Amino acid sequence: MRIRRILPLALALAVLGGDSFDASAAQGGPDPLIGQTVVEVRFASDGRELDDPALRDLTETRVGQPLSMREVRETLTHLFSLGRYGGAEVAASALGGGVALLYELQPIEVIERIAFSGPRVLDDDEIRVAVTRIHGGTFVSNRTAAVVETVRAFYAARGYLAPRITPELLGRGDRRTLRLTIDAGPAARVRRWSITGPLAFHDTVRARLGLVDGVPYDGVTLDGELADYEADLRGEGYYEARLSHDIEPLGEAELDVLLFARRGPRIIVTFTGDEVPGADVADLAPFAREASADEDLVEDAEQRIAAHLRGLGYRDAVVTNTRDGNADALSITFDVARGPLYRVGQVEIRGNQAIPTGEIEAILDLAEGDPLVVRDLDAGLAEIEERYARLGYATVRATREDLAAPEADGNGNGSGAANGVPAANGVPAANGVPAAAGAGQAPADGSVMQSMAITIVEGVRTVVGSVAFDGAIALPPASLAQVIGAADGGPYYAPQVNADRDALLTRYLNEGFDRVRINVDAAFSDDLTLVDLTYLIAEGAQVLVDHVLIVGNRQVDAETIRREVTLTPGSPLGLDDVAETRRRLNALGMFRRLDIREFSHGRDDRRDVIIEVDEAPGTRIGYGGGFELSQRLRREVRGARSAAVERIEFAPRGSFEVGRRNLWGKNRSIDLFTRVSVRRKNDPVVFAPGESTRTLGFNEYRVLATYREPRALGLEWDIVMSGYVERAIRPGFDLFTRGITAQLTRSTDVSANTTVGYRLGNNDTSNRVLNREDSDIVDRLFPNVRLSSFTASQVRDTRDDPVDPRRGTFVSLETEVAARAIGSEVGFSKSFASGAWYRQVPGVSRLVVAAGARIGLAWGFPRRIDVGGAEAAADVTRSALALPISERFFAGGNTTVRGFALDRLGSPRTEPGGTIDQDGFPQGGNAMLIFNTELRVRVTRAVGLVTFLDTGNVYDRIEHMSLRRVRSGAGFGVRYHSPVGPLGFDIGFKLGERYLFGDHRNPEPEQRWALHFSFGQAF
């Protein structure tokens, strides 16, 4: 019989408010089991024994080691830091000549779900949203009272002032359901509406809001109506309008409503005096946006207007304001005296020796005759000083000096209407820009030519004599020297020294020295030509990772999370490792919330890292609807034959997707995506109007099933397997495809991605509207073709926004090889490269320049087909070098060359390299070349304009590629920046020759223009 004795070794952890604990030992002398060998360690919770490897990893009282009170305390601290348990007790008993430990853990009860019972008065989902917004999706059970008060306030805001709410916890264990039984009580009615503010405004408020005594009270609806009315008043010029309400309960079923209504004066902004070219009143005087017209805001508007004028070259501009009005109307008048327009005259550079004059002139960017903008000139001088400072001239000064007093224009001060154009609606018109006057000549518009001298006092050049590290013990000075930019003999640049200090701090922090202190001692020589730099380093203690604790995961396997964690026990607790761990865990897409925190348990050099996750729902469902507007080719009967015509088509579409992530506790997922679109099929080649068909229906659809397993088989590659079925209506033919793909994908960093894969599928074409005599032999032999191919791609993407980029680059390279040896009916090799570049115009953040280039090359593998004689076989062999039509390159449309309908880009088949048949339908080609340039202008926060020039062509064979045979389109467009991305409308015009297609007796030219509708930018 085993004798078990519970000893006074028990330690209790009492969690107060979930944030602190108190550990104390039971009273008594030294326990006889202290120092004995631990032979067993067990864990129990809620009456059940636990076999959790994570708990054993946290145990300092290990089997085979002597029992120590310090190790018991550390184990309890580790267990508490998990955040799963609200209390813990440890009991020791003699067992087999040693000691057995039992850790009894009291779980923290977490509410995962809220259920409601009682009469339904308000929507349950809306209540859940309100609770989640304040308390989160899950919360501990001791927050129940606060949740009840949140629900009570939700009911009160909707007119149920005294709801009776009874909470009840359901279920067992640490995951519970909170059931709220709600009796809403009577709906309160409004006994009386009281309105504060001007009496003349009361009747207007009552009429607008329809205030009637005795109606049920709904505070949320009332607040919405007040907000709408306030917005309408501000739209009418009452920028200081304020509307709100409060209630005075008179019991459970009755209340008085107090409306606080202040309309304020109607504010009118006018300009007098000189005109302000290019003025945007809403931006310069933002009273509507700020909903105020106080003195500070008016003074700010003065300064904005003056700064706007100075930015145009009116450096003597003066703006004053006057206010006139009463409680009902307020007129704010800005009086503008802009003075003469100053233009850049002759510029003389003096005193420069270290930097050539040409380089300084390039920095200043002052062209004679341009408006003289002092702000830009001062910025140029500051850049010159910065350029010198980087060379070691720390005391350099660059100043400007007017060489001669400016001569006033013949009109006195250059004020008045610009070019005789009067102001419209108080907003002045812009001056014309005259040609620059010659030296010594007065400009014809009466502006002032201001010559100036730029004087540079270079001062002494300081170089670094030596660099030393004082106090570096853990990290060798040689490794620290590789981190900094300062070097012996190099120029002394104070910002570089500060940047080096920050780089050293980062290096130490990444090695776990979180208390490191670094200062820089710069010892200058008497003549300031030499400086010795000493970095004074106080390293402090290095912090190592003690344990990595995973908290909050229920369905996700802990090993899946640990595989993404770069922090390991015993390694330095570095900043980069923490950031990389956070990035990799977020990239899993499995968590709604992620928190990484440190937990210290008394030691300066060891800390636990706690990774707390909040899992996202395992099942995700999405659906959507929309439409496509595009200019497409359709066959139309014309006289004795039919030909291609361009038509704008409207095609509604809908989509549905469902997915399941975290399969089998791993970061695996499976998704099903479906999409359907209403569009009519292609008409066959017909020659009589009566034979034309109209097959409108669900003729376009796509079904895609995808399985993904990140870092499969312990490698750095993700496995992606897909099966697909798709039907598409292409210009010239209908395409039905189905097949499977398998891919291995690897992200080498946040911007680079490599993919290799295999594809097996069938492509069937039908309803071909292409003329048979224009078709390649491969299309006639293989209208339905089986393809088996290997693919590879490399992508590098540094764009700041994939949908609407403003800076960055995008480069991709794709290649595919299909061969009969691996099961394909035809063999070919195909490569496609694309690149795009995006930059904001310096100094003009609303302007973005975008440029792109794409090239596609394909080679068909020769194949001999005996169709009757050697000569015919040779012809077939040459023709069979073409790819199946489903694999060729097509261009034209809103993402390639605008001005051309979808896939219509190309030259007639009668020309070398042509891909458009005699009826005007595209055949596609083995080569493609596309160049795009675009200027994007953000006019307002929601609206933008673009202007573009697109160039390119599609060629039947690679040997026919030529830059002399490209076609171009140019035009402009509008972008609406919606919450989900930019919606675009472009109109493009063909440049150069337009070809004739159709009946040779009465051919018609291509349409001059094309309309394009899109989501996102063109490229």
Number of strands: 43
* Helical run tally: 17
Under CATH, the topology of the largest domain is which?
Answer: Porin
Q: Using the alpha-carbon principal axes, give the shape.
A: globular
Domain count: the total is 8
Strand content: 35-45%
What is the distance, rounded to the nearest whole angstrom, between the alpha carbons of the first and last residues?
81 Å
Return the CATH class of the largest domain: Mainly Beta
- The CATH superfamily of the largest domain turns out to be membrane protein fhac: a member of the omp85/tpsb transporter family
Helical residue percent band: 10-25%
- What's the mean pLDDT score? 84
Query: What is the strand arrangement across the widest sheet?
Result: 26-27-28-29-30-31-32-33-34-35-36-37-38-39-40-43
Level-2 CATH architecture of the largest domain: Beta Barrel
Class by SSE composition: alpha+beta
Topology, element by element:
Layout (H helix, E strand, L loop, with lengths): L10 E4 L8 E3 L12 E8 L2 E3 L2 H5 L11 H13 L3 E11 L2 E10 L2 E8 L6 H12 L3 E2 L3 H14 L6 E7 L4 E9 L5 E8 L2 H11 L9 H17 L6 E8 L4 E9 L3 E8 L7 H4 L2 H4 L4 H16 L7 E8 L3 E9 L4 E9 L6 H8 L9 H17 L6 E6 L45 E10 L5 E8 L6 H5 L12 H17 L6 E8 L5 E9 L5 E8 L6 H5 L12 H13 L3 E9 L6 E10 L3 E20 L2 E21 L7 E12 L15 E14 L8 E13 L2 E17 L2 E15 L10 H5 L2 E14 L10 E11 L9 E14 L2 E17 L9 H10 L47 E12 L4 E13 L11 E12 L2 E11 L4 E2 L6 E2 L3 E7 L4
Parallel strand pairs: 3-6, 7-10, 11-13, 14-16, 17-19, 20-22, 23-25
Antiparallel strand pairs: 1-2, 1-5, 3-4, 5-6, 7-8, 9-10, 12-13, 15-16, 18-19, 21-22, 24-25, 26-27, 27-28, 28-29, 29-30, 30-31, 31-32, 32-33, 33-34, 34-35, 35-36, 36-37, 37-38, 38-39, 39-40, 40-43, 41-42
Helix pairs in contact: 3-4
